[in-house]
Amino acid sequence: MRAINSVGNIGYAQDTVTVVEAVPPVASFSYSTPYKKKPTTFNASDSYDPDGTIVSYTWDFGDGNITTTTDPIVIHVYANVDNYTVILNVTDSQGLWSTATADITVKLMGDLNGDCVVNILDLAIVARAYGTRPGDEYWNPIADVERDGEINILDISKVAKEYDQKC
Known about the structure:
Number of helices: 2
Order of helices and strands: EEEEEEEEEHH
Strand order of the largest sheet: 6-5-8-9
Number of domains: 2
Radius of gyration: 26 Å
Structural class: mainly beta
Largest sheet: 4 strands, antiparallel
Number of strands: 9
Helix content: 10-25%
């Protein structure tokens, strides 16, 4: 390095400078099953920054709601049955950012046959699979509303609780 002061004196110095390229964070998230008017948990805990710290998580839920937080876990409630694109933007301590997206479908809880109404037809789906587990002859994963690997009274009660709801 060469430096010249205000009176014209020249000085030289030598040193080693290491240039480190900043690496942006990596955005990633998962979410619970989204149902109309029920809390959906979005979890960005798997996001990471290889050379720093994530300082903010900005969520665009696709329904007009945008939320910025320092916590990787947020809860959102969708008002309508529809398809949405969720975008997560993570920003690190160096101001670098990255995004992750997911297309999600918000359903009506208990509407097992997808006809936009919870009725006797949905209860019949659970009743037909009642008492089964994966591998059983009448097992139907759609009827496992509780997602616990067996069709039982908890699944029937969840559908019954939503009876007569419409999209």
